[in-house]
Amino acid sequence: NAGVTQTPKFRILKIGQSMTLQCAQDMNHNYMYWYRQDPGMGLKLIYYSVGAGITDKGEVPNGYNVSRSTTEDFPLRLELAAPSQTSVYFCASSYSRGTGELFFGEGSRLTVL
Amino acid sequence: AQTVTQSQPEMSVQEAETVTLSCTYDTSENNYYLFWYKQPPSRQMILVIRQEAYKQQNATENRFSVNFQKAAKSFSLKISDSQLGDTAMYFCAFMKHGAGTNAGKSTFGDGTTLTVKP
Prior knowledge:
The complex is a heterodimer of chains A (113) and B (118).
Chain A: E1 4-7, E2 10-13, E3 19-25, E4 31-37, E5 43-51, E6 54-57, E7 64-66, E8 76-78, E9 87-94, E10 103-104, E11 108-112
Parallel strand pairs in A: 2-11
Antiparallel strand pairs in A: 1-3, 3-8, 4-5, 4-9, 5-6, 7-8, 9-10, 9-11
Chain B: E1 3-5, E2 10-14, E3 19-21, E4 24-26, E5 32-39, E6 46-52, E7 60-61, E8 64-69, E9 74-79, E10 88-96, E11 106-108, E12 112-117
Parallel strand pairs in B: 2-12
Antiparallel strand pairs in B: 1-4, 3-9, 5-6, 5-10, 7-8, 8-9, 10-11, 10-12
């Protein structure tokens, strides 16, 4: 099983550039999440979605956008990249009628120079 | 708003001994889950143990157990017979269960880095 797949795994951006982090899950989970993790720190929730067409802000949404047009995909868009967005980004998914456990992707390391 | 606080940024323990990691949370919800996740140097997040708020009995998974104090909003993790492979960052997490505002929202603490010494 593929589980949660994130691409790319690594990316370097210049200040002001934009990019999209892709996330796909094949477990038919209705909940999906984007977190960022700064070095030595915890996970901060950027956005989450409880189903296709529904998204909501987390703790640190500024500078990011998301969409959820299908159950499987939950891309994260960075507009006008800034050095403060240098971080590791994790996508995760969960099933509302399950155990509540989050299943994580392997992370995407983004550097903004 | 739901918040999760881990007050111990770093801890260490000798191999084979027992260590307890602390976690407190704040919520007005009644129906929720609590979790401990482990993040080894590989960065992959691994579920260690979960607790449903409506269950009074503390969850146990082999060498890992929790002390869940609902009234005090405390959820500590005890690791018995610590092993070198337990070296990792440990995160406490909260998720509101059910329906309504914030259902499914999952919040993490800042983590505790645990080092098991030989």
